[in-house]
From TrEMBL, chain A:
GO terms, molecular function: ATP binding; ATP hydrolysis activity
This protein's UniProt keywords: ATP-binding, Nucleotide-binding, Transport
Protein name: ABC transporter
Species of the source: Streptomyces naganishii JCM 4654
PANTHER family: ABC TRANSPORTER, ATP-BINDING PROTEIN
Keyword Nucleotide-binding annotated: yes
Length: 314, 466
């Protein structure tokens, strides 16, 4: 038993009738780590979170949560909190009532203080006594996070926590999750928002059709990945094209997929070392570089590549 | 799989929580789960509206109707709403058994599980409580609490309206005898208590529908549909054993509390059958709930499961109860239980009690039921049909004797007997006995108790002499 791990899954399988939702999944999540769970629709992310939350029992394999083997019965060990498929709030109750109920059910003693603290943490103190019925999606997401925080989890599992959040709300939530991780809480996020995962996660697990196609640090993912498309914006695209074409390892992509009015943009496909050479060449030739950024994020590119490979292999 | 290093994105090694043994799963205490379920139910505007309506509407209805010149004489005890405040809660009880209680149980019990499907909150609740068993028990108890609150509201409100509007006077029973106010109060309380059994049966069916059918509206409607079905069945010429085995029989069997002696046999059977239905339906709902997979996206109930797991066992219970009643309780496996002898005995008894009341109203010399020696001779369809079963073609001649008068008095009544044994006797002469709606008393005009009155034929063979 590895005591550094909040989650340790080996060969976990779960089926619903003829549908195999998880097929021999291995997963390790360390304490203090924010771990991303990525995959296309139907990949098994929700099922995986459901198993971790104690909502279902695996058909086979072993699962240890917070150093406790999960048995055949429902319900995860204490210290696990979070939500799957939305925050699960009661619209007829106020935000405070929703949290007070969760605090009472989780056996918290100083419930009022815990509720106030959680509301303040997610920035909902001003609407604490409003009924959830009138909340926006983003407010519900934040309240769902607060409901999880009220239980003082040591393993926090969140399904699409950034859904409906405005930039300020997203930043707020990111801050909360980062602080939790710094305090040693293991956080598992399921999301389709690659920018969120890249901003938050130290490791990701990519699922496709119930199988793990990648699991590990983001850096390793980028290293394993093929060449990416980069958008290069310069005041002299013709010179840039000429230099890019003559640089080893650089392939100019003609179909930029960008509007024709954006004439200063060039898309090149390259690995990172070749990209360094291109930048040096541009600078030496006196061509200014206004922007050089991936067209899609490395994680998204890897996600697309890996999941497409998996689909093709079926 | 790689990547098990406990580092944050910034690369700082974190050991804060590492190595901490997991706490055992904290299961929320039943009391807290129950309180949460109750808070959720009472936070719904429609439940609040129902509570308000149940605690106020019967009082307003009874008080209002009691002051009208026209009374709801087609409703049991409705014709006595001018005379005593204790008739009001019984009129409300009759209405509640037919309409209100099935609908209330539908709205509360039929929705208590389905609402979580509708709101998508099952997973949240399971994570918080960590025990499907406790969730089920808490939900069932919370639903039951609200239903009891609504039933109590109907009873208390109806009683308060009657007593405030009319007063605490003796109640005329279903066989015409007078119940003192204290006795009437006890019987009214008992009658309302007895209908809790079929209400629990409907609540159990509501829970089963709510669990089995998920967010389908059929789950919500199930108690009301079952109640409607049993009411239709009660109107059909079913054998007595089948009638008594239906879960809603106690909704009408409480009538037997207002005869002397009380017809407790059918009532007790109705209560036991109602409780058995409630227990079985709740147990089936419990088993179905525990077998549910909450991560299965499509697992929110299905009609097929409801059919196999719910309908078949309940049908088996109906068959078993019918068999037991036939074998052990002496309920006839065939026949309506409405026979000439029973009708004659019931009518003569009621007539004697009411004749005595009329005598008292008119300040004539007092007579007793024993002195009257009332008897009745009844036939059906002028003798062309067997004198058995429900129908509005019963015709009876009541004969009685007055002290010191050798010639008997005779009065004719047309009886409309329904399949549950209840009848309305409509006077058909002579006019000085039962021909007029009102009688002239020294204190002014008063309703003639012999003009038209309600009665009850006990369906079981163990008929009382009352």
């Amino acid at each position: 038993m590895d005591t550094h791990l909040a989650v340790r899954a080996r060969g976990v399988t779960k089926s619903f009738g003829d549908v195999i939702a998880l097929d021999g999944v291995d997963l390790d999540v360390a304490h203090g780590q924010i771990h991303g769970l990525v995959g296309p629709n139907g990949a098994g992310k929700t099922t995986a979170l459901g198993l971790l939350l104690g909502l279902a029992v695996a058909d086979s394999g072993t699962l240890e949560i917070l150093n406790t083997p999960v048995g055949r019965g429902l319900a995860a060990p204490g210290g696990v909190g979070g939500f799957v498929d939305g925050p699960g709030l009661y619209p007829a109750l106020t935000a405070r009532q929703n949290l007070a109920a969760v605090a009472a059910l989780s056996g918290r003693r100083s419930r009022t203080a815990a509720v106030d603290e959680a509301l303040a943490e997610v920035g909902l103190t001003d609407v604490a006594d409003d009924r959830v019925r009138g909340f926006s999606l983003g407010m519900r997401q934040r309240l769902g996070l607060a409901a999880a925080l009220v239980t003082e989890p040591r393993l926090l599992l969140l399904d699409e926590p950034s859904n409906g959040l405005d930039p300020a709300g997203k930043k707020h939530v990111h801050g909360v999750l980062t602080r939790l991780a710094a305090d040693g809480v293991a956080v598992v996020l399921s999301s389709h928002r690659m920018d969120d995962l890249e901003a938050l996660c130290s490791e990701v697990t990519i699922l496709a059709t119930g199988r793990v196609v990648f699991s590990g640090p983001l850096g390793k993912l980028a290293a394993e990945n093929r060449a990416l498309d980069y958008r290069l914006r310069t005041p002299d695209p013709a010179a840039a094209r000429r230099i890019a074409s003559s640089t080893a390892g650089i392939h100019v992509v003609d179909d930029t997929g960008t509007p024709r009015t954006d004439a200063g943009v060039l898309v090149v496909r390259a690995l990172v070392p070749a990209l360094d050479e291109l930048v040096a060449g541009l600078v030496n030739a006196g061509v200014a570089v206004r922007e050089l950024a991936p067209v899609v994020s490395p994680l998204e590119a890897a996600f697309l590549a890996l999941t497409e490979q998996q689909e093709a292999a079926r | 799989m790689s990547g098990t290093v406990g580092t944050t994105r910034t690369g700082t090694t974190t050991t804060t929580a590492a190595g901490v043994a997991a706490a055992p799963a904290h299961r929320a205490p039943l009391s807290r789960t129950y309180r949460f379920e109750l808070v959720k139910l009472l936070a719904q505007w429609r439940v609040r509206l129902l509570v308000l309506a149940c605690w106020t509407a019967p009082a307003l209805f009874v008080a209002g109707v009691s002051r009208q010149s026209t009374l709801p004489s087609d409703t049991l005890f409705g014709r006595w709403m001018h005379a005593t405040g204790w008739a009001g809660p019984l009129v409300v009880l009759g209405f509640a058994g037919t309409w209100a209680l099935p609908l209330l149980t539908s709205v509360v019990a039929g929705d208590v599980f389905a609402s979580e499907d509708r709101l998508g909150t099952w997973r949240h609740l399971l994570v918080a409580v960590r025990s499907p068993r406790r969730i089920f028990v808490a939900k069932a108890l919370a639903g039951l609490t609200v239903i009891m609150l609504l039933v109590a509201g109907l009873a208390c409100s109806g009683t308060a309206g009657g007593l405030l509007a009319v007063g605490d006077h003796p109640l005329v029973g279903l066989d015409g005898h007078l119940l003192a106010p204290g006795t009437a109060a006890g019987r009214v309380l008992l009658a309302w208590s007895c209908v809790l059994a079929p209400t629990l049966a409907l609540a159990g069916i509501g829970l089963l529908g709510s669990v089995a059918l998920g967010r389908s509206p059929m789950g919500l409607l199930l108690p009301a549909l079952v109640a409607l079905g049993t009411q239709v069945a009660q109107m059909l010429p079913l054998p007595v054993a089948v009638r008594l085995a239906l879960p809603g029989y106690a909704f009408t069997a409480w009538n037997g509390l207002f005869t002397s002696p009380a017809q407790t046999g059918p009532l007790l059977i109705g209560v036991v059958v109602g409780l058995a239905w409630g227990l079985l339906a709740t147990a089936l709902a419990y088993l179905l709930f525990l077998r549910r997979d909450f991560t299965g996206p499509a697992d929110d109930g299905s009609g097929r499961r409801a059919l196999t797991a719910g309908l078949l066992p309940l049908t088996a219970l109906l068959a078993a109860t019918t068999l037991i009643l036939t074998q052990a309780a002496g309920a006839p496996a065939t026949g309506s239980g409405i026979e000439r002898n029973k009708v004659q005995r019931s009518l003569a008894t009621a007539f004697a009690h009411l004749y005595r009341m009329q005598t008292s109203q008119l300040h004539r010399p007092a007579v007793t039921e024993a002195q009257l020696r009332a008897t009745a001779a009844c036939d059906k369809s002028d003798g062309r049909a067997d004198p058995e079963g429900a129908g509005n073609d019963w015709r009876c001649v009541v004969t009685w004797y007055l002290p010191g008068v050798t010639a008997p008095g005779r009065a004719v009544y047309q009886l409309d007997i329904t399949a549950d044994g209840r009848y309305v006797a409509d006077g058909d002469g002579p006019k000085e006995v039962n021909g007029y709606f009102l009688v002239r008393t020294p204190a002014g005009d008063a309703p003639n108790p012999l003009w038209q009155f309600d009665g009850n034929v006990e369906l079981l063979a163990t008929t009382s002499k009352g």
